[in-house]
Specification:
alpha/beta, five-stranded parallel beta sheet, 7 helices, 11% strand
Length: 199
Amino acid sequence: MLEQRIQQHFIDSADLKYQAAPLLAGPIAQAVQAMVSALTNGAKVMACGNGGSAADAQHFAAELVGRFERERPGLSALALTTDSSVLTALANDYDYREVFAKQVRALGVPGDVLLAISTSGGSANVLAAIEAAHERDMTVVALTGKGGGRIGQKLRETDVHICAPHDRTARIQEVHLLTVHCLCDGIDALLLGEPDNPA
């Protein structure tokens, strides 16, 4: 019984990814192009999210600052989820809703990109970060699920929405992780050329 349950998780995850591929390839490619444009113009990518989405934000930043699958110079990326002194000061002195927005206002400049991750599309502090990014004339790449929620409604035409087509958090997070890898691979492909056919 337990083994069948585990197998079903694999099957459900694979099915969703197969179904999502044609829906998300376009928005992911748009996000890659926005990020490469920012990075090649001296700007940076900031990422935020809560819980598992915080882990995705940190994973993404680590792959850009370090490397994904190929050697290259480090790229300017920052997870807004990692400085415990900043996070706790902002949550204590202001409100938890402000923990990312305050950082975006302090560190963001026009031309930067914010990768805003929320499985529900309704995280209040991610919404606030998006508002702050818009104030700074930054592009937002939103990674959501469950139809996109309030985040989907807050995006501008110049933003990119990558919405995993599912309502279950675990399945959405699995698509988000694959999307992070696609973003990193796409950035490398545009900067370095295709691995088998260097530009």
